[in-house]
Amino acid sequence: MVGEPLARSAHRRTLSSQFTTSTYPGGPRNNIRHNNSSFSPLPPLTHRRRYLAISSLLILAIIFILKTSAGAPFHRITSVYSKPNLEDQVSSCGKLTTPTRTTIYGTDTVYIPGPTQTVTVQDNALIQPHPSKAVVFILIMWSKTSAIEGALLVKSILMYNTSPSEFHIICDDEAENYLRSRFALVHRPRQHILIRFYKPSWQSMLDRIEREGTIQTDHSAGLPGLMKLFIHEIVPVEKGIYIDTDAFFISDPTLLWNIFETLKPSTAVVMSSHPDQNSPEWNNASRICSCVMLLDLEKLRNLRLMDSSIYQADSTHRFPSALGPEAFRAMYGLPGGDGRGRYDNVRLGDQGYWWAIVSHRPDIFEPLSYDFEVTSCLLNTYNIGLGNDDTDESEELSRQSFLIDTPQEGIVVLPKLLHFNCLHGTDVYMNWEGWSHPDNILAQRWGAALKYHEGYKWIWLNNGGGSSMQMEATSVVFADEHFASEISL
Ligand SMILES: *[C@@H]1O[C@H](CO)[C@@H](O)[C@H](O)[C@H]1NC(C)=O
């Protein structure tokens, strides 16, 4: 209901902005011509009469056109920039339901429903098409239970995102089917939504780990969890936000996305950092959390984050050797102890490897504000939760815990993304038995928030009109396999 008037108002904005232009006929351009003619020698009398007659006819014609154009502004309307939706071209499902997207400089992207319409814009406004303004999420969901959690995360994104959303979801059939059952309820979203399912086979993931040669997992998330180290090899986007499934937003995800703009040029990985945490049993890997990550995937590809037997076999040496092996060696020694086995001393699955990477290369790392990872795991959601709505910031800060000796010491945590990890005894954190215990402190803090977001109906997301939703599925080819096919050319 909102999208159509929005699209129209964008039209109107564009047209009205043309009123302010100084280059319409009758303006300075014609004056210049008059001035010029006054400098030229006077033509003979007959020529002057013919000139006056033609001029009068022209003026009459112009007045006639102005009157019959029903009040429309008569402006020098020149080129039109209209380009088909980029995603349409890479659609793998062949269902091109997205209406033509016309990019207009200085306004939002407009999705025009129905047959293609021509949008006219001022020529001086056509500088460059806007880059895609979508917030890009990369999620991994393996099994239905993981998708049940992840669907709540996705729903919260759609509830709050003020930008279009892109979801790149690495998943199996069960997870895809569950998510599709929820997406099917949304047909009039407020913002454009793109969903792409990436479907690696179990064997293809095993093979990639095999080609890496040194890593293995000790973690319950197992093999799919290790794929967090290979996102840059699976998802062909420039950058994205990775979030574990056991989390949901309580504010606009665009705020998290905007952090990319604030990063140092060398930064490729952003995650929350807790230098105050000591965990000798985990080699201190709990000082980071690979649960919420801003990933510059293009940089990680250029760094060749993870090694492969295919890269090792490339004798041209045109590319730097992979970053992973040297980082893992620096922290954990030789794989298997003698360099011939696999690491058996790395804890917390992928996080142990990320910890080695960002410890070895602090130049590519920046800490994430805890606002975006309010975690129930060990850190007790920093002792914050729903409560008195008139609490001021200094009072809130005085109560918060686990901020001393961290990058956020003295800075109040204003929760935007809640992360319910370490709730044991259940596959789905929403079913954790603690939620039903009135005395449970986590339930007191956040139980109502969970209940609201869980119970929020997908059909309530149907509050737009002109925006569309596009779903695709694709198989997975890892970057090292692409590389193999390139070098054999
Ligand atoms: C963990 O951190 C502590 C305190 O900084 C340090 O003494 C210890 O060597 C670290 N352990 C590992 C395995 O890095």
Radius of gyration: 29 Å
Ligands in the model, by name, code or SMILES, are: 2-acetamido-2-deoxy-beta-D-glucopyranose
Distance between the termini: 52 Å
Q: CATH architecture of the domain at 135-370 and 457-481, please?
A: Alpha-Beta Complex
Kindly report the spatial arrangement of strands forming the biggest sheet: 10-8-9-6-3-4-5-13
Structural class: alpha/beta
Which band does the percent of strand residues land in?
5-15%
Individual helix count: 17
Instruction: Give the CATH class of the domain at 135-370 and 457-481.
Output: Alpha Beta
Profile the largest sheet.
8 strands, mixed
CATH topology of the domain at 135-370 and 457-481: Spore Coat Polysaccharide Biosynthesis Protein SpsA, Chain A
- Give the tally of β-strands: 13
Give the integer mean of the pLDDT values: 79
Looking at how many chains there are and whether they match, the oligomeric state comes to single chain
**Uncertain segments:** 1-44, 65-131
Query: Helicity level, as a percent range?
Result: 25-40%
